[in-house]
Amino acid sequence: MARLPYLQRSELPPEHQDVLTRNIAINQVLANSPGAARAFGDLGMFIRHRSRLDPRLRQLAIMQIGWSARSPYEWSHHVQIGRDAGVTRSDIANLAIEAAGIKSSIDALARLVLRGAREMWEGPGMSAATFAALHDELGKECLTDLVVAIAYYCGVVRILATLEVEVEPEWQPYLVEFPLPP
Question: Where would I find the H helices in the chain?
Answer without folding.
Answer: 25-30, 34-45, 55-69, 72-84, 89-99, 108-122, 128-163, 172-177
